[in-house]
Design a protein that fits this description.
The chain is built from nine helices and seven strands. It is an alpha+beta fold. Helix 2 (50-61) packs across helix 3. Keywords: Kinase, Membrane, Phosphoprotein, Transferase, Transmembrane, Transmembrane helix, Two-component regulatory system.
Length: 390
């Protein structure tokens, strides 16, 4: 029967290996000495004088030996006893050495079967340290249960590092892409004014200030995401009524809603959560601005707050715009992600709005949910853990 060592804990595997080696060594010594004993009697007779040997044979045959022969046997007992003990000691040492050598070979073979996955893991770790995030150990049949778990964990860690490295590379390229256009505009205009090609006009300066404001918004959004990555986005918590916070944000947003041609509908039910009121207002404002940029064609924006069950509260923004892609509910909101081709830089956004909202929701122990609104449009919900009214 084949033993699947990879299914055994390391402690049990070590104990079983030790026990097996002890049994093997005892068996080798026992059967070896027993085999030597079968030849020991004949060798004993060869060592005795003829008369003593005859007396020994007579006694074994049940006959009375002659007096002279018996006396010779008695006289040789001390010497024969010493010789027999020496032969037994030599047999034990010999077969003990054979047992040690045999168990060493078996132990080495078993140790190689156990340690081979660790060697693979050590090599994979070196490759990972050298920057090869695609390295994987894979599943192996050899090794203890803890080793198999360690290898599985390593593969999961390597996959996560590869994903993080890929996201970092993408985000770096995305940031560079988003910064390039406004910086190019600023550099070209400033260089032109410095060279006297462009006149220093107030309108041109205002246009450049718009680019600077866009850069400032981008930097602030990136700073928010950086704080979220460092678990420092929400540092002060208190009891917050989502309805009250939504009232403040929507009241301050009436100007941008009007300029986007959106009328406002509200259904604000009290909902207490534990959180940072400033960050929650920032998240709601980002959703409102997102709707103003991308869903102004719908003509109406609806905001709801309330509770879902006994454990969750929500802020929901609904529009009648073009909606979001069908797979947005499972889409990973990367930096500068936009739902469709029309959601481009031309709308004036940084592309970080939903990323910031998602980061704020996660920092509060919540999540961001997306759904298609019945009748057309998008429905974006911030779900948060509910604060007890007590």
């Amino acid at each position: 029967m084949k033993i699947r060592m990879s299914r055994m804990p390391l402690s049990l595997l070590t104990a079983m290996t030790t026990a097996i080696l002890l049994v093997v060594s005892v068996c080798i010594v026992y059967f070896g000495v027993s085999w030597m004993e079968s030849d020991l009697e004949q060798r004993l007779l060869d060592e005795l004088p003829p008369g003593a040997a005859q007396a020994y044979n007579d006694i074994n045959a049940g006959r009375m030996p002659q007096d002279g022969h018996l006396r010779a046997l008695v006289n040789n007992i001390p010497r024969i006893q010493e010789w027999g003990e020496r032969e037994v000691d030599i047999s034990i040492i010999t077969f003990g050495a054979i047992a040690a050598a045999t168990c060493s070979l078996i132990g080495y073979w078993l140790a190689r079967k156990i340690s081979r996955p660790l060697e693979l893991l050590a090599q994979a770790t070196e490759d990972l340290r050298a920057g090869d995030f695609a390295v994987r150990v894979g599943s192996v049949r050899k090794g203890a249960k803890e080793v198999a778990t360690l290898m599985k964990t390593f593969d999961e860690l390597a996959a996560e590092l590869e994903s993080m490295e890929s996201r970092l590379r993408f985000n770096t390229m995305a940031v560079a892409h988003e910064l390039r256009t406004p910086l190019t505009i600023l550099q070209g205009n400033l260089q032109g004014m410095a060279d006297g090609v462009f006149p220093l006009e107030q309108e041109r300066v205002r246009q450049l200030l718009v680019q600077v404001e866009g850069l400032s918004a981008l930097v602030e959004d990136l700073r928010t995401l950086s704080l979220a990555a460092g678990q420092k986005l929400v540092t002060q918590r208190g009891a917050v009524d989502l309805a009250a916070e939504a009232t403040q944000v929507l009241g301050a947003s009436r100007t941008i809603l009007a300029s986007a041609g959106l009328s406002l509908e509200v259904a604000l039910a009290p909902a207490l959560v534990s959180g940072d009121s400033q960050r929650l207002r920032q998240a709601l404002l980002a959703l409102v601005e997102n709707a103003c940029r991308y869903a102004s064609s719908g003509g109406v924006l609806r905001c709801e707050t309330g509770a879902r069950g006994a454990d969750e509260a929500f802020i929901r923004v609904l529009d009648r715009g073009p909606g979001l892609p069908d797979d947005v509910s499972t889409h990973s909101i990367d930096l500068f992600w936009r739902g469709d081709a029309s959601r481009s830089r031309a709308t004036g956004g940084t592309g970080l709005g939903l990323s910031v909202v998602q980061a704020i929701a996660k920092a509060h122990g919540g999540r961001l949910e997306f759904a298609a609104r019945p009748g057309g449009g998008a429905m974006i919900t911030i779900m948060l853990p509910r604060e007890s009214a007590a």
